[in-house]
Every structure is written in structure tokens, then in C-alpha cells.
Amino acid sequence: MKLIHANNWALLVGRVVVSATLALAPLAQTHAQTRTLPDFTDLVEQVGPSVVNIRTLEKVTARAATGGGADEEMLEFFRRFGVPIPNAPRQSPRPNRPQAPQQEEEQPRGVGSGFILTPDGFVMTNAHVVEGADEVLVTLTDKREFKAKIVGFDKRSDVAVVKIEATGLPAIKVGDVSRLKVGEWVMAIGSPFGLENTVTAGIVSAKQRDTGDYLPFIQTDVAINPGNSGGPLINMRGEVVGINSQIYSRSGGFMGISFAIPMDEAVRVSDQLRATGRVSRGRIGVQIDQVTKEVAESIGLGKPQGALVRGVESGSPAEKAGVEAGDIIVKFEGKAIEKSSDLPRMVGNVKPGTRSTLTVFRRGGNKDLSVVIGEVEPDKVAVKTPQREEKPKASTAAQVLGLTVSELTDAQKKELKIKGGVKVETAVDGAARAGVREGDVIVAIANAEISGVKDFEAAVSKIDKNKAVNLLFRRGEWAQYAVIRPVK
């Protein structure tokens, strides 16, 4: 046996240790650079109690149920997942019993989400969740249920505030949207398909995503489905940074693109709703368009920026200020307008009656104009016409939902990048109350794809008139669900 002296052994061990350390050094550096996936458990415990389930009801006049019992497969689905079954259909009366007289009763209208804004009971959600509801029920995570009063809603921003009579509630913390970064982890809590307290997570895909009107949306890949509407989008600090509102879909399912209303915009709207019950926005009365690169170069503007004025309304604040068609509005109150959609948002956030400054580029130079901001007219509430004979003529099947539809042309399908669907010509009654309007394109009904009018009529003829039916429609590039209660 070969013996090794203690000193030599120590030297040998030292060399081995040094060699091993040098060999592992790159591995240690690589490990240090590796970022672990986030753990959302603490966030769920922290924010979960602030998220609520919202159910809406509407009053309908109907006779007692005469059809069969409830859909057993759907009831079994609810039982398996522990979802409560509100207002379950009553059993049909015995054949020899007299028919019950017509009576007014409340029927489920929809399910959504929301979150507690203040400890004294103000709750924020989407406008499309509560619009048209006769009653709003808010359920907390501790299973307490409250009837809520609609304080106000704003369809342009899709923000609504409701109030429940309770105190000491766990209010959510509002985060700073300006600190939100693309690639940052975010989490959503809501009630997709009525399944309460469902948690999904993803990352911020883009900020300031332009979808028109007043909202620069936050785009994420967080899984959002019907019922998530109105729920919070939460950052890793446990702060709400947005309200989950829309999905982009060509098939009706989640496709990895969701949109949330930025919380700074939502707070501005909610403050007005709580103060006055409505939102007041500024306007100057111009029709605008984007400035193309070719136009910018040809007129000496340099880079394509600002809002090109296509027309000026007669008697509008812009006309009184001296704005002319062909002007390019490059600044508002000293703030640069990078793209045309920036202008209506900037002006809209200014209180009507305020005197502001517009900087326009006209014939090679900039010019400052003083303008007194006007007010955007409030949305007009559609009134249902009681005379049935005055409604637009529709086929028997379409009248069940209050819709008149037509075939899509090949050019329209190509433009929308869809294989089929039908175009809405008129929407009244239940369809109008659900938010469907002329020009929308219906791509699915009751979770079945629609290729054309024939498919649409066939699908409508098969629906149960005692139950609400879901409709998936496209408005431009954006997909949205509507829940319609058929006319009996």
C-alpha cells in the first residue's frame, strides 16, 4: 500500500478543491444569472379577498316554466366544480294543473368580476357587466352577498362603479401604471364562466396598445375568458394596474391576447362617476387622421407625427379658435402628439370650459391657437319601441334574438380574416340590451361557429327559449361576447 504523507495529502486535496472550484465557477455564475419563475401564492392571499363575483339579473314577464327540467349535464358541471346555481329553473307543473298567470320575475343575465375600491363598499368593474341590469349582486370571498347600487358607468372607457352597504372591506391597492414594464409578470383573478376566485398569470405583452376611442390598453397573455370581465390585473407588488376587459379571438377561445384598461384611466373615470354619476369629457370638434411618412416629408414636417385635421365642425371650439382643414395638430398644452389617437385622449381628459393651447403645423411653420374646450355629448340611451309592427322586418328565427342579419361578402371575410359569419343589419330588444349593434359580425352562437345565414337560422331555431344564449361577435378586429335572453 502506498502511503501519502499528511502534508502531501493536504496539498493533493487542496489542488482538487481548487480545480473543482475553478471548474464550477462558470456553472455558479450561470446559476446566479438564472431567474426563477415567480410564486403567486402570497399575492393570491394578499389580493384575493379584494376580488368579488358579480351577478346581474333582469326582470322578465313569463309564465311558469312548462318545459322539461334543467339541463342535467350543465347542472352536473356546476355541482362538480362547486358553483352555486342561482334561480335554477323550476320543475314543470303537472299536466292537469291550471296554467299560471303571467308574472314578472328576475332571471340571471350575466356573470362578471370586480374588485373593492374603498373599505366603505365602492366596487369597480366593467360597464358592459352591469349595463342593462335590473339588479346587481356582489359576492365576497367570505360568501357574503350584497345587493349593489349602480353608481354610474361609462361605455366609452368600459368602467363602472357600484356600491354595496358594508364597511371595513379589504380594499385593493392601486398601482402606478407608468412603472409597468413590457415583459413584467402580472396576475388576474376573476370568475371565468362563473367559476369564482380563478387565478391566471402571464406577462405584459405591450403597453399603450391603440384600439381606438379613449383607451390605450395594456396587452397581456394572461388567460381571460367570459366572466373575467371587470376583474383586476395585478402586478408582483400586489397592486391593481388594470381592469381586464377584452380578448382578441378569431375562434371564440382564448388566443393569448388580452386587454386591460389602465388603472390611471379607470381611476379618473371612477372619480367622476362617484362625484356626479357620469363622465364629462372635452372635445374641440375636428375630424382627424394619421400623418403618413409621405405627407410629413412632402410638407416639411419631418417625421410622421401629430393629427391631420380632415375637417372642422361648424361652430365648434376648433373653428372658433381658427383651426383649418389641412392643419396638423402637433402639440396640445405643450405636450407632443405622436399619433392622431393621442389627441382625443388628451382633450377628453380636460374639463369642458377650460382654455387650452393647440400648436398646429400650417404651411411650413408652427402656430399656437387658443381654444376653449367643449363637452362631448353623453351617450344616448336606446329606447325600446313598444310597437312590434314598427320593428325592422326579420325572419322568424332572428326575431327570437331581436336581430336581422345578412351574408358576408368574400371581401368582408378577407378583410376580417375569418372563414364565416353573418353581418348584423339591425339589433333590437334583447340583442340591443346585450350591446350588439348594426355592423357587428356574428361568428358563433351557443358555442357553435356560424358560416352564413343558413347556419345562423338553423342554430337559432334549436335554442331553448327559456335559457339565455351566448353570442360571439366581431367589431372590427376585436371579439366580444354577448348574452341574449330570447323572446318567447
> In the CATH classification, which architecture of the largest domain applies?
Beta Barrel
SS-based structural class? Answer: alpha+beta
Residues in helix, %: 10-25%
**Poorly predicted runs:** 1-24, 63-96, 380-394
List its salient traits.
488 residues; alpha+beta; Thrombin, subunit H; Pdz3 Domain; 3 domains; six-stranded antiparallel β-barrel; 27 strands; disordered N terminus
Put the structure in a nutshell.
This protein is α+β, with helices and mostly antiparallel strands.
Q: How would you describe this structure to a colleague?
A:
The protein is globular, with a radius of gyration of 29 Å. Residues about 1-25, about 65-95 and about 380-395 have low confidence and may be disordered. The strands form 5 sheets. Strands 1-2-3-6-5-4 form a 6-stranded antiparallel barrel. The chain has a 6-stranded antiparallel β-barrel with strand order 8-9-10-13-12-11. Strands 15, 16, 17, 18, 19 and 20 form a 6-stranded antiparallel beta sheet that branches. About 35% of the residues are buried. The chain has helices at about 5-35, 40-45, 70-80, 125-130, 265-275, 295-300, 315-320, 340-350, 395-400, 410-415, 430-435, 455-460, and strands at about 50-60, 105-115, 120-125, 135-140, 145-155, 160-165, 175, 185-190, 200-210, 215-220, 230-235, 240-245, 260, 280-285, 285-290, 305-310, 330, 335, 355-360, 365-370, 375, 405, 420-425, 440-445, 450, 470-475, 480-485. About 20% of the residues lie in helices and about 35% in strands. The longest helix has 28 residues, at about 5-35.
